[in-house]
Amino acid sequence: MIKFMHKYAKFFYVFFFLIIISFIFFYVGPIDKSLEQLALVEIGEKKIYPDEYWRMYENMKNYYSNALKEKFTPEMEKELRLKDIVLEGIIDNELLLSEAINLGIKVTDEEVNDAITHDPSFIRDGVFRKEIYLRTLELSRLNPRYFEQKKRDDLTIQKMRRLIELAANTKAEIPKEFAGALKGNEQAMESIMKSIQDEQKAKTLRSYMQGLRKIIPVKVRAELIAWEGGDGAKPVV
């Protein structure tokens, strides 16, 4: 698994980006700022606090644990640099959201409503259940207005990401030395072309994010999420 992820790191980044978008705002309630916490990340005027980071980190850790079962060991988590990846994902999403707002990219009320009413978490027997929706938010200590705003932000980020990917050169071509060997094997051809396209999109996205970091101030206090006493110890927040 680890060797596979290293070998296909570019494609894994795209996969991860899709995952973290789905977790970045979901079931993360407002943080009580009365405790005068230091911000872990400052992106322009936006601040991300350690509590928010750890919730997102736990969401991501649980995702991999559920997906990989016993294969997801502490060693794998460490080799994947999960802590760093979650932090980078948070920063990237906030940068994309900031730039989308600057560019005037909007999400309509209808789009937000459609995303919520088609969310599997709130559907039973093929139908959206408002009572399940409200109960789920209540259990997560979220009010509908807050959740809907975060869903709007989520959709805005996705729109921004798709816009960037449109700039990628997606006209993939199989190298001539392999084209002959793959002739007649349409399934293999399509699989390879998709991998090439994904790599091009990942490169375009990374290049764009690097550019954003040069023009939007980003301050990170990494010491706020340092492990105390080594592996497996309690995080310092």
UniProtKB/TrEMBL annotation:
Compartments reported by the entry: Cell membrane
Pfam families per UniProt: SurA_N_3 (PF13624)
Keyword Transmembrane helix (UniProt): yes
Transmembrane feature ranges: 12-29
Principal subcellular localization: membrane
UniProt GO MF annotations: isomerase activity
Alphabetic keyword roster: Cell membrane, Chaperone, Isomerase, Membrane, Transmembrane, Transmembrane helix
Protein name in UniProt: Peptidyl-prolyl cis-trans isomerase
Lineage, broadest ranks: Bacteria, Pseudomonadati, Nitrospirota, Nitrospiria, Nitrospirales
